[in-house]
Model the fold of this input.
Amino acid sequence: MLSAMALRCFIVDDNATFLTAARTLLERDGCTVVGLASTTAEALRAVDDLEPDVVLVDVDLGGESGFDLVRRFQRETTVDGSRVILISTHAEEDLGDLLATAPARAFLSKSDLSGGAIRQILDGTARPG
Done:
């Protein structure tokens, strides 16, 4: 399924250093990073045209909220929540209620980010927690 083909990823994060590192890591894992955005506006403008398989969204976008962005994806773009993975350096437990109500497929700690982890989430083979 997705593991057999290059996974097309779009990453939204306000930290330029993380964007560069994440792109390098994912491309080494066989993913194609089709776009990067550091603000809500950039993400909303670009995501439909780039048609990613998955969108990785940092929960904290500086003065903006990644949770608000994923809700806007649902209302303003063709990106379905099943193609969104929220990412953060914060522990999953610290984000509990916000994650539970967010229209996203899953949460992935930035320290666990990899092409394999994303494929497991999308294929439904990721282990919970």
